[in-house]
């Protein structure tokens, strides 16, 4: 059982580590912090904390491999093919050799095919990616909010304009809804994890769209941090099924079942 002070210490340690390293170096640093042990002993704390913080800080590490491997009953620390949007497969390498044009920071490479056995562990990976997408969405919202407070037009901050407020408010509602869904989801419920990942992907796309509009021209520049979070969100949304594909899959499941299962007891 992790106490409040222990959780705060862990949170501070993770934030400091992610601020100082990313990629393969962060992967090694997380192992030194006991990531694999936490994944076995306190997964319900470790997964939301680590993946949400990856999104908030903009750092990256191939730890999704560990979550999916663990759910499949295999040891972590290696890689495996992961389903990607469009019925394709990718491998997230544990190196710094980049391999994608969508997010040039990530060492993700396309492969011909994957192992169908791992599809049984996709639910845990989808839930973890949902937390990463929520973290990235909050990072985008924070950037847009600060810009709205700082940017002055017609003699007042643009945060006072109703159109700006509506965009920021809609983004916040989408993020809060996605996070609430993730909190109520258990990785053993494949259908709930599917919906949670789809909701988080939709929230990230909403955040990217609205925050881009709030930031205006500066949001398109490489000098601003927004583009990094947008690219990261688009890449993460495609992993283990895009939000569009998962929504379509959920509809097919409901049609076949003939009823909607209870996901949360209110």
Automatic annotation (TrEMBL):
<feature type="domain" description="Acyl-CoA dehydrogenase/oxidase C-terminal">
    <location>
        <begin position="130"/>
        <end position="243"/>
    </location>
</feature>
<protein>
    <submittedName>
        <fullName>Acyl-CoA dehydrogenase, short-chain specific</fullName>
        <ecNumber>1.3.8.1</ecNumber>
    </submittedName>
</protein>
<keyword id="KW-0285">Flavoprotein</keyword>
<dbReference type="GO" id="GO:0016937">
    <property type="term" value="F:short-chain fatty acyl-CoA dehydrogenase activity"/>
</dbReference>
<keyword id="KW-0560">Oxidoreductase</keyword>
<keyword id="KW-0274">FAD</keyword>
<dbReference type="Pfam" id="PF00441">
    <property type="entry name" value="Acyl-CoA_dh_1"/>
</dbReference>
<dbReference type="InterPro" id="IPR009075">
    <property type="entry name" value="AcylCo_DH/oxidase_C"/>
</dbReference>
<dbReference type="InterPro" id="IPR036250">
    <property type="entry name" value="AcylCo_DH-like_C"/>
</dbReference>
